[in-house]
Amino acid sequence: MNIKTASEKTGVSSAAIRYYENEGLIPPIDRTAVGNRDIDDRIIRRIQFVTQMRSAGMSIDSLRQYIDLFDSPEETSEAEQTLLREQLTEMEAKRDDLQVAIDHLHDKLDHFYEHMQATADELHELDRQHAEKSES
């Protein structure tokens, strides 16, 4: 299939598919006699894999490293698992940071009027003090 069809099938833009190929994230794509990309199911699966890993937050460099290990003729499952564990640790840390921010927003919303009243009282007191200074 051509790159447009592959793009429609995977939901990945043609530009991203070209980028993945240029960065070595997917294998080199065969070309037709006239030079158009001829994408097969093997490439589609790789595009889907790259998309999933990028959605999981894996950096291009880590993904390239993982793919190099995966494509290696050597036994690399231990190294692959190490990379995946590192990625998971990073994602869990991001999730935890995000959860702190979410909890903070929930607290602000749950106590919105209390916070607003305290701020209003503080501003009124500052206005009163300013007025007193101006009168003296």
Automatic annotation (TrEMBL):
GO terms, molecular function: DNA binding; DNA-binding transcription factor activity
Residue span(s) of domain HTH merR-type: 1-69
CDD domains: HTH_YyaN (cd01109)
Database matches in InterPro entries: DNA-bd_dom_put_sf (IPR009061), MerR-type_HTH_dom (IPR000551), MerR_fam (IPR047057)
Phosphoprotein in keyword set: no
Gene3D superfamilies found in the cross-reference section: 1.10.1660.10
Keywords, sorted A to Z: DNA-binding
Segments forming a coiled coil: none
Pfam families recorded: MerR_1 (PF13411)
Entry keyword annotation includes DNA-binding: yes
Name recorded for this polypeptide: MerR family transcriptional regulator [Lactobacillus paracollinoides]
Species annotation: Lactiplantibacillus mudanjiangensis
Lineage, broadest ranks: Bacteria, Bacillati, Bacillota, Bacilli, Lactobacillales
